[in-house]
Design brief:
Elements (H helix, E strand, L loop, with lengths): L6 E2 L2 E2 L15 H7 L54 H4 L14 E6 L5 E7 L14 H8 L3 E7 L9 E22 L4 E22 L4 E8 L6 E10 L4 E8 L4 E10 L5 E10 L4 E10 L5 E10 L5 E10 L7 E10 L5 E10 L6 E9 L3 H8 L5 H17 L5 H18 L2
Parallel strand pairs: 5-6, 6-7, 7-8, 7-9, 8-10, 9-11, 10-12, 11-13, 12-14, 13-15, 14-16, 15-17, 16-18
Antiparallel strand pairs: 1-2, 3-6, 4-5
Length: 431
């Protein structure tokens, strides 16, 4: 006679459940440590060695709509210690968009692909669903939220399946000119759509994106940062994923002087699947920073995070900080995050910080990984031993490394254009 395994909140327990050393069923042993906001030092190469506090659990970080709740950062804060703050002074200042309300605004927005079942409108401050999902997690996001009178609102109505991508082209008109932006994407139950946000041109751009996904809906957001070399871009992208819904966020950053994206999602109910992918290529003088946060705040949901980057040239700099929080109530969670960086030349630097907090032992799985290095000599040897010249072999290795992310993009025209972009990047240093 086979015993039926005991279940708690629908998750198997007892001998058959996954066992994690140091955990009880409720996970208090680890939670007591991870939730503490103990003082600590950083002391990495070129980083501040001053003591900072309050950096503990992501659950304890400050969020809010009041700009005054986010003092001007100094660089000693956990959220800002990797970022070149002097170059971000323009977008962190609590000021309106230059030329707001006139035809002299520094950024042009064009929306295309709207069909039957897709509604395009604007939302004033306080008008639902604006602010229902996005909760500013740093000063930049709070400033952008406050200083946009009319947010662009894209709603996909219940049961609508949009065959072609809905595109939002965001084009900066001049370097050093300030622009605030806020976009709200709303997918009603069982709706299906792909949203493409393409950033080009030059501007000091501070942009928020919030995505509300109802039960059974499926939404992909593809954010392309193809700015000119003098552009500055900071942004927060938040999503809330409903019951049995699917969400994919893909961030591709190739252009811009400084790009810093803070991408987060949480769950409205159980049974949802959320994925977060990123691809970035930094050249000399570029600072590209991606921060991700997966908040497993309800049971039986899954997430997958994978970011890949390449760097070449003196002073090329990339940063990835990935946080996953599995709360006490999130039994049955399945989560994984990984970051990989390929350094192509001397003088480039990649920082990679994966963080995983688990407050319950009743999970299906959770893990994280990070790697940064140069070419795999075995791969090069294999290709060169078959008569492929070294420079071509290096290009093939880089293409193969990046291709995993490119294939996550549903839009074939974007996949093709990204392949061409990477070819141009590789030609810069002869790789």
């Amino acid at each position: 006679m086979t015993e039926t395994p005991e279940k708690v909140a629908g998750v198997e327990v007892g001998e058959r459940r996954i066992s994690i050393p140091g955990f009880t069923e409720e996970g208090e042993n680890l939670a007591a440590e991870t939730n503490s906001a103990a003082d600590h030092t950083h002391g990495g190469l070129g980083e501040s060695k001053k003591v900072t506090s309050g950096a503990g659990s992501r659950a304890n970080r400050h969020i809010g709509f009041d700009v005054s709740g986010f003092p001007e950062p100094t660089g000693r804060e956990e959220e800002w210690r990797f970022t070149p703050l002097k170059k971000l002074a323009g977008v962190l200042s609590d000021i309106a968009t230059d030329g707001a309300g006139t035809d002299q605004e520094p950024v042009d927005y064009q929306v295309s692909g709207a069909v039957e079942g897709v509604e395009i409108s604007t939302l004033a401050l306080g008008q639902s669903p604006r602010g229902a999902v996005l909760q500013p997690a740093d000063r930049a996001a709070a400033v952008a939220y406050k200083n946009v009178d009319d947010a662009l609102h894209i709603k996909v109505t219940e049961g609508t399946e949009v065959a072609e991508p809905i595109r939002v082209d965001i084009t900066g008109k001049a370097a050093g000119v300030r622009a605030n932006s806020h976009l709200v994407v709303e997918a009603e139950p069982n709706a299906k759509a792909v949203i493409v946000l393409e950033h080009r041109g030059s501007a000091d751009y501070n942009g928020n994106v919030e995505v509300k996904i109802a039960d059974g809906a499926s939404v992909s957001v593809i954010s392309l940062q193809r700015w000119n070399d003098d552009a500055v871009h900071v942004g927060q992208h938040d999503a809330e994923v409903g019951k049995d819904a699917k969400y994919k966020h893909v961030a591709v950053t190739l252009g811009g002087s400084i790009v810093r994206l803070n991408t987060n999602f949480r769950y409205a109910a159980e049974g949802a699947r959320a994925e977060m992918y990123g691809l970035y290529f930094a050249d000399a003088g570029q600072h590209i920073e991606h921060r991700t946060f997966v908040d497993h705040n309800s049971p039986r949901n899954s997430s997958d995070v994978l970011y890949k980057g390449a760097l070449q040239g003196e002073t090329a700099r990339t940063v990835w900080v990935g946080d996953v929080l599995i709360r006490k109530e999130a039994e049955g969670t399945d989560s994984y995050e990984k970051n990989q960086n390929l350094v192509l030349t001397d003088g480039a630097r990649a920082d990679s910080v994966p963080n995983l907090e688990i407050e319950t032992g009743l999970i299906d799985g959770a893990g994280h990984a990070s790697s940064t290095g140069r070419f795999d000599d075995n791969h090069l040897f294999y290709l060169m031993s078959r008569g492929i010249p070294e420079d071509i072999a290096r290009q093939l290795v880089v293409r193969g490394f990046m291709n995993e992310i490119i294939q996550k993009i549903e839009v074939s025209s974007i996949r093709e254009s990204l392949a061409e972009d990477l070819e141009r990047e590789l030609r810069i240093s002869g790789h």
